[in-house]
């Protein structure tokens, strides 16, 4: 028994010395890189599955709707890129950015139109959204793989550690995108459609007055004895329209017809902070619109040009809730937001017109 | 009293007790880590469609089918006033939360 104790003591002392020396040789970091890169690899497999599944679903959708070259269309869309405009010379950057975004939009629309010539606008909009979601998932997968391989190649434990810490968030967002693909292909309204839903609640089943800009319509109605012009993307296809351009054109048109505008209200879905309730509402000032800039600036500029008060009402929700099917809490939030809108309208003199813009993707909402 | 007891135990037994205690501490540590990870919850959503009469005197609930959208006027008539029916709302409701344990 005494011999065994001696052996245990000798082995534990040897182990302690070896571990102590390895610590000075950076073994702990190498072990950390090994464990973390193994963890990233496992999560990368999940990202790959999401990317492959969405690719398969998109190609299947294109095939089922008569596409002859779904793989080629998918490859073009998934590798498509937009080069950001030069920002060290900011003059006219918004116009340049808008040109690039519109060119991308037209290119994608043509791509889908050419491959699905005998389908309606609704189906084409679904195909377009499916291609965009699949391209996003493919990009996320490729970027994570790139940083993992780069981190391993250069033995950069800081890179690996950062990537490992980012993985849960990336995985959560990728999962939402993957689920969103199914929701879009079924044509269900999504959380981001809160703005268009509020617009629909105001105009109900009435017909739009005019398609004022591409895929964006406006309605004329009356609330609290004031004339109200409601702008929204044209539904029920997957579409966000060009609300900035539409509001700008509408203001110019009304003013040239001798009308006075007393208020512009933008209604949109907004990301909630953790702990906040889904469907809670908030009122503020400015243009509530989440585009890269060109649409938002048009609303700001036109409001500033004519000195029109610009108010915003937002319905709060999480990132996943914004791109997945609309929840009951969001619908209830839209109803509460209507009361805020009415309150704002009552403060405007009766002879002045009001513009309400429901911002967001109008899929599943007429 | 305790020091007397320690002296009474042979060094071999002391070593074994130390090993057992270390194993016990490690097991408890692992168990504490497992317990500290909250179980992830998976929402189970069901899509509801609310159909309403344009005169707002009748409302009913249906299940979602492809092709349905908010504002769609249906071919059917209202059982009360024979006016048109339209889709008033489509939303997802949380039935219950499924708890799934996460691997450490």
Q: Can you put this structure into words, describing what you see?
A:
The complex is a heterodimer of chains A (366) and B (104). Chain A is an alpha/beta fold. Chain A is built from 11 helices and 7 strands. In chain A, a hairpin with a 2-residue loop joins strand 2 (216-223) and strand 3. In chain A, helix 2 (27-64) packs antiparallel against helix 5 and helix 8 packs parallel to helix 9. Chain A is elongated, with a radius of gyration of 27 Å. In chain A, 42% of the residues are buried. The mean pLDDT of chain A is 94. Chain B has 104 residues and is an alpha+beta fold. Chain B folds into 2 domains: 2-36; 42-95, no CATH class. Chain B has a 4-stranded antiparallel β-sheet with strand order 2-1-4-3, with no helix packed on it. The model of chain B has no long low-confidence stretch (mean pLDDT 84). The interface between A and B is medium-sized, with 25 and 25 residues.
Defining traits:
heterodimer, A: 366 residues, alpha/beta, Rossmann fold, 7-stranded mixed sheet, elongated, B: 104 residues, alpha+beta, 2 domains, 4-stranded antiparallel sheet, 2 helices, 4 strands, 39% strand
């Amino acid at each position: 028994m005494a011999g065994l104790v001696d052996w245990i003591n000798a082995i534990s002392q040897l182990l302690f010395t070896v571990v102590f020396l390895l610590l000075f040789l950076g073994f702990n970091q190498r072990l950390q890189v090994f464990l973390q890169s193994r963890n990233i690899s496992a999560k990368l497999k999940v990202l790959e599955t999401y990317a492959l599944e969405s690719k398969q679903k998109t190609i299947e959708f294109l095939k089922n709707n008569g596409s002859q070259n779904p793989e080629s269309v998918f490859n073009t869309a998934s590798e498509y890129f937009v080069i950001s405009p030069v920002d060290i010379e900011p003059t006219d950057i918004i116009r340049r950015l808008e040109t690039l975004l519109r060119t991308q939009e037209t290119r994608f629309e043509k791509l889908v139109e050419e491959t699905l010539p005998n389908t309606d606008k609704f189906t084409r909009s679904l195909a377009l959204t499916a291609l965009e979601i699949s391209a996003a998932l493919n990009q996320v997968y490729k970027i994570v793989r790139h940083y993992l391989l780069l981190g391993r190649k250069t033995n950069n434990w800081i890179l690996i550690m950062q990537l490992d810490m980012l993985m849960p968030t990336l995985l959560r967002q990728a999962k939402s995108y993957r689920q969103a693909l199914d929701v879009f292909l079924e044509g269900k309204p999504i959380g981001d459609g809160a703005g268009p839903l509020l617009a629909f609640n105001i105009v109900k089943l009435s017909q739009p007055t005019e398609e004022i800009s591409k895929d964006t319509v406006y309605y004329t109605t009356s609330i609290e004895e004031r004339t109200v012009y409601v702008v929204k993307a044209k539904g029920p296809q997957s579409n966000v329209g060009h609300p900035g351009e539409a509001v700008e054109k509408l203001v110019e048109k009304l003013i040239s017809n001798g009308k006075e505008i007393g208020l512009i209200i933008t209604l949109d879905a907004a990301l909630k902070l953790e702990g906040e309730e889904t469907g809670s509402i908030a009122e503020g000032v400015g243009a509530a619109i989440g585009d890269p800039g060109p649409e938002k600036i048009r609303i700001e500029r036109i409001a500033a040009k004519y000195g029109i008060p610009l108010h915003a009402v937002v319905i709060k929700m999480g990132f996943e809730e914004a791109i997945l099917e609309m929840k009951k809490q969001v619908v209830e939030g839209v109803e509460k937001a209507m009361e805020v809108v009415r309150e704002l309208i009552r403060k405007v003199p009766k002879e002045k017109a009001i513009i309400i813009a429901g911002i967001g993707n109008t899929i599943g909402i007429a | 009293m305790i020091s007397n007891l320690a002296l009474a135990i042979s060094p071999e037994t002391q070593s074994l007790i130390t090993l057992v205690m270390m194993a016990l501490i490690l097991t408890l540590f692992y168990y504490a880590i497992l317990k500290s990870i909250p179980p992830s919850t998976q929402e189970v959503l069901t899509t509801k469609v609310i159909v309403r009469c344009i005169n707002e005197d009748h409302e009913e609930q249906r299940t979602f089918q492809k092709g349905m959208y908010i504002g769609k006027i249906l071919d059917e008539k209202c059982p009360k006033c024979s006016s048109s029916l339209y889709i008033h709302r489509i939303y997802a409701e949380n039935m219950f939360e499924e708890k799934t344990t996460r691997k450490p």
